[in-house]
């Protein structure tokens, strides 16, 4: 988008917000820098899109922007502060800065705000929830209700997510009840998915099924049934898994996830005939999986890895590291679980394939390139497979490193051989 040459603040504000809305986040930040270089002072309309673009690009200029808007008194505007709290909370999610540091900053801005609305409270609730700090989410929510602010649809998504990830079954059920009866917010698919996840983690599959059977079918989308399917896989309930998979197929026929989950479940039960049947079904329906990939951010550069990737400049070194990792975790007692082979891109259940899943290559590169003492942050586009999850936990232990793996579902903070997800995701 062209610069609004010779124009003033209003033209810049319009151009920045147009770029941000169009997803041209880098351009939005460039225009902001250019505007400031011309001596124009940002106002309360400039900053929300700039903060949002910065957060989405995982760049942490929030500190500098924060100082700027305090100086100019802009933090007094509710929507500016909301954008700032949200930007810090988002940064903590993507891990561009130390998660706890960003959450602290979000909290600082939040505490300094004179007025707050549902968006402000919700940003903080979601920020805590997504960083595995469920109890703090609940405490913020309690303050929100006490303050007289009305929680909305998104607030409850954050709250139920927090309950589910912190294993707070009773609190989750109580909030789910009260959202409609006390706050007049009708539960939607996101809330049902959280509840199924919450009950599934606690092993209460029957309760989850009762909840869904008694709910309006229109509110139950494929996400809800996939949450049930994941619970069935964990608790090895094949009959219910078939029912959940059939629902996903009806609602989202192109989704590969049910095939992968069913295949995992059957192979863990050693029901090879059923494994073959599910794979054949997947092939006959022409379903192919999105290829898995993982990435690591080192010194501001993103390094992307695919399974069996030989493309990286340091590929030979990385593969030697993978071999070393495999040997060291095996010595520590890690037994490869080849039943997870179809989770990722490896064609068959070969141990060789598992060792070269993209997340392991990314972790190996992290061990080589991230300075000792700093956490290794790895991102994955799909859910991490069970074998990689166990293997990377052991890697964190034997190498004495903190590894933070963000997969398509949640954060895994791995340290000393344990994971923040409690091995349920
Ligand atoms: Zn894997
Ligand atoms: Zn985990």
UniProtKB/TrEMBL annotation:
GO MF: RNA binding; zinc ion binding
InterPro entries in UniProt: DYW_dom, E_motif, PPR_At4g14850-like_plant, PPR_rpt, TPR-like_helical_dom_sf
PPR repeat residue numbers: 8-42, 117-151
Keywords assigned: Repeat, Transit peptide
All copies of domain DYW, residue ranges: 333-425
Keyword Cell wall biogenesis/degradation recorded: no
GO biological processes: RNA modification
Pfam families reported in the protein's UniProt record: DYW_deaminase, E_motif, PPR, PPR_2
PANTHER family per record: PENTATRICOPEPTIDE REPEAT-CONTAINING PROTEIN (PTHR47926), TETRATRICOPEPTIDE REPEAT-LIKE SUPERFAMILY PROTEIN (PTHR47926:SF517)
Protein name: DYW domain-containing protein
Organism of provenance: Oryza brachyantha (malo sina)
């Amino acid at each position: 988008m062209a610069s609004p040459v010779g124009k003033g603040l209003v033209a810049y504000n319009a151009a920045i917000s147009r770029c941000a809305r169009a997803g041209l986040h880098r351009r939005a930040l460039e225009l902001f820098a250019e505007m400031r270089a011309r001596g124009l002072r940002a106002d309360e309309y400039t900053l929300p899109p700039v903060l949002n673009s910065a957060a989405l690009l995982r760049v942490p200029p929030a500190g500098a922007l924060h100082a700027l808007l305090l100086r100019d008194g802009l933090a007094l505007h509710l929507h500016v502060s909301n954008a700032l709290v949200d930007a810090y909370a988002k940064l903590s999610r993507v891990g561009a800065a130390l998660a706890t540091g960003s959450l602290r900053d979000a909290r600082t801005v939040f505490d300094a705000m004179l007025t707050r609305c549902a968006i402000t409270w919700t940003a903080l609730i979601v920020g805590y929830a997504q960083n595995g700090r469920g109890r703090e989410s609940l405490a913020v929510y309690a303050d929100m209700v006490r303050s007289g602010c009305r929680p909305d649809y998104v607030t409850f998504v954050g709250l139920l997510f927090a309950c589910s990830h912190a294993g707070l079954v009773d609190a989750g059920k109580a909030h789910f009840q009260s959202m409609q009866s006390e706050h007049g917010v009708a539960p939607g698919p996101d809330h049902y998915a959280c509840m199924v996840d919450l009950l599934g983690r606690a092993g209460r599959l029957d309760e989850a099924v009762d909840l869904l059977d008694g709910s309006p079918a229109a509110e139950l989308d494929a996400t809800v049934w996939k949450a049930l399917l994941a619970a069935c896989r964990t608790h090895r309930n094949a009959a219910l898994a078939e029912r959940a998979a059939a629902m996903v197929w009806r609602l989202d026929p192109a989704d590969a996830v049910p095939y992968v989950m069913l295949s995992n479940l059957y192979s863990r039960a050693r029901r090879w005939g059923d494994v073959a049947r599910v794979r054949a079904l997947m092939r006959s329906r022409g379903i192919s999986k999105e290829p898995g990939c993982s990435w690591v951010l080192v010194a501001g550069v993103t390094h992307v890895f695919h399974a069996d990737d030989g493309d990286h400049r340091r590929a030979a070194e990385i593969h030697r590291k993978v071999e070393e990792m495999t040997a060291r975790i095996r010595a520590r007692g890690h037994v490869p679980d080849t039943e997870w082979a179809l989770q990722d891109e490896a064609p068959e259940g070969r141990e060789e394939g598992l060792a070269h899943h993209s997340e392991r290559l990314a972790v190996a590169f992290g061990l080589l390139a991230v300075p000792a003492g700093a956490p290794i942050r790895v991102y994955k586009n799909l859910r991490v497979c069970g074998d990689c999850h166990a293997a990377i936990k052991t890697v964190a232990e034997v190498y004495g490193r903190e590894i933070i793996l963000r997969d398509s579902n949640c954060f895994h903070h791995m340290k000393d051989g344990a994971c923040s997800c409690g091995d349920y995701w």
